[in-house]
Amino acid sequence: MVCEILSVGTELLMGQVANTDAQYISQRLSALGISVYRHTVVGDNVGRLDEALATALSRSDFVITTGGLGPTEDDLTKETVAAHFGLKLIQDEASLIHIRDFAERAGKVMTDNNLKQALIPEGSIIMPNLNGTAPGCIIEKDDKTVAVLPGPPSELKVMFENSLYPYLQKKSGQTLISRYLHIFAGESIVETQLMDLFHLGTPTLALYCSTAETTARLSVMCGMDEDPSPVLDPVENEIRRRMGDALYGEGLTENLPHVVLSLLKERHRKVSFAESCTGGMLASALVDQPGASDVFDESYITYSNEAKQRLLGVNPATLARYGAVSRACAQEMAQGARARSNADYALSVTGIAGPDGGTPEKPVGLVYIGFADKNGAFANEFLFKGDRTDVRTASIKNALNLLRLALLNDNDR
Amino acid sequence: MVCEILSVGTELLMGQVANTDAQYISQRLSALGISVYRHTVVGDNVGRLDEALATALSRSDFVITTGGLGPTEDDLTKETVAAHFGLKLIQDEASLIHIRDFAERAGKVMTDNNLKQALIPEGSIIMPNLNGTAPGCIIEKDDKTVAVLPGPPSELKVMFENSLYPYLQKKSGQTLISRYLHIFAGESIVETQLMDLFHLGTPTLALYCSTAETTARLSVMCGMDEDPSPVLDPVENEIRRRMGDALYGEGLTENLPHVVLSLLKERHRKVSFAESCTGGMLASALVDQPGASDVFDESYITYSNEAKQRLLGVNPATLARYGAVSRACAQEMAQGARARSNADYALSVTGIAGPDGGTPEKPVGLVYIGFADKNGAFANEFLFKGDRTDVRTASIKNALNLLRLALLNDNDR
């Protein structure tokens, strides 16, 4: 099945928002093995919308529209699609009741404008909108199908998952099974080590990189009841063997803070942080995860030298001799945070995030990450590239990875 | 001038990335008063790219392509554009030297694949790539213009600003002047209060909302040497009058943490934080800003009750009677942070960010924000909607706004 996505909205052409709707739908269609050959964006203009719809339907079996279902006069997607197929718009009672209830729950009164949102092309399959007022619909005619979705991402995603995905899954009869492996290493390193695996054909291997880490995706197309394991398992095992401890997790939504949180929970350990240039970002990455209270009691943000001394017990002589951005200071910060918090582990970060404050000896991007556990403390030196946000992001990821590697060897229950 | 954006890349059709290139270019073209009528995305497929290019040029004077300039065999944008216009590709010596130097600086050797990136359609204007290897180019032929840009956003933005924007500015002879006013209030409140100003025609008024705040944009189209002030000033002044202290800043890139940092600097004040459910996010928002060390020495993350007592001096009786998520606890947290840090101001956050931990009496989204200064302390109650990230984001913005309002009245130098 060949599909196109047609997004409607002047806000997209003005660049006020990125077309994340098309991205989301494409990701999900790809998981169903449905090929997307084109994304098109037009403004709230009936002429251009109608022309784009006709062109898309001349090339593709299936067109998904997003946007243009609002209550205002500009919102004309349903009207244009119905006219294209020569269908009347008829009022849907269930949608009308939903719109009235939804407005009431939001403490509003349904306006005449909202009435228009309950109109549906005759004979179409209605997709309820659990997060908003405008329903979507699926129109099947002359071997062509058009699915009409709302523009706001929170409405679109829920409607897609509840109504359109099951519809498409039934229709396509096959699905792309993907596995995601998360690796704490740069893309070029991972690429070099997995080079020969890119040429297997089945399964396919693709890499996605973000600051300090790389995700490998293994994919294979399967019938609905087919088991992908015989194809995926051997290649996954080979990647795991080559990557060793650098491979930290699996699954589309896995991330480093969540893995660290899980390891801390499993091993009944607690962590504390002492942050300078990251200013709370490291602790916040952990607290972002639900359930952090099991492994985390407290943390210190010590930006000034005086605070490093008073709150963490960093030796004034260390600061005088080596400065706050130094291996010795990072080590003492971690030791101090561990001793004061009574946590099993402590991590510290001190560095020069920029844009100012760099010198030839201590350039922007120089960061020391300290680590303390019951056996002692040490600190590692890093020189990160990029702007203030890049340096801070690389710092917290490397700190979390240091803790992860320590936890993997922490079998002393 | 009517423009279309044609993006090339299978990764876009797979949903691996959102089309932020099209968004960026659209924003910038809008600032020049150039209308964008269409975005199109096609994969790395010469047939579909060629067809999309021909169709775009049949409708529009100006087509900007993004992507497909890499060194691999899949990257065929320049080849396809050159073929469309019947132009030969010729090697550009300056680009070749740049590619070799760029590879060497990155510690790599230029490969044969890179040689292809130095090929340019004959007679085109070359746009150097300061952040990568592939140059872009502008081809003018038969009243049509095609600008070819690279796909990676870091390369595209710099090339656009240095080469394409000045070219287009000269060509269009006019520019859209916009002013951005940032308001700490929800969209519906702002919309209601500014209702009549939406119908002025000139200047145009548009609202953009994000968590807890709204940005109003005033725009007018001007000739290159025209002064927009007589049109914009009266409406801006009226918005300022109606919004009062809720209006916190101006300019496209202004944000609340930066405004708070500036006010703290101006008034020579320091702040400290005591965070529970935000876990360092509030301090990190301030430290995100360069120059935070002038106004910020230290901060406390107290997640457990025991840490709230030991680090901030919260009374055990308060915790026993009211719980950690309470007005009394928030107030004592702020008082404790102020006293211990010796800062002029302290803010505290304690709440239930979810998804777990809510009860009928204390539901998910219940947050207390405490405030302390030399005159005393208080705490405000909030009930925020949304997921864990929404609740935490709304918490830090409301905390920063509380501090901002206090600083506006802090004239006691």
Could you please describe the fold and organization of this structure?
Two copies of one chain form a homodimer. Chain A is of the alpha/beta class and 413 residues long. Chain A contains 15 helices and 17 strands. The first copy, chain A, has helices at 10-13, 20-31, 46-59, 77-85, 93-105, 112-115, 153-172, 187-194, 229-243, 256-266, 281-287, 305-312, 316-322, 327-341, 388-408; strands at 2-8, 35-42, 62-66, 89-91, 119-121, 125-127, 136-141, 144-149, 174-183, 204-210, 213-223, 247-250, 271-275, 298-302, 345-351, 366-373, 376-383. In chain A, helix 3 crosses helix 4 (77-85) and helix 10 packs parallel to helix 15. At the A-B interface, helix 2, strand 2, helix 11, strand 14 and helix 12 of A face helix 2, strand 2, helix 11, strand 14 and helix 12 of B.
Q: Main interface pair?
A: A-B, 65 and 65 residues
Indicate the mean pLDDT of chain A. Answer: 93
From the structure provided, what is the oligomeric state, counting identical versus distinct chains? Answer: homodimer
Ranges of chain A with pLDDT <50 over ≥5 residues?
A: none
User: Overall 3D geometry of chain A?
Assistant: elongated
Amino-to-carboxy terminus distance of chain A: 54 Å
Described by strand count, sense and barrel closure, the largest sheet of chain A is:
6 strands, mixed
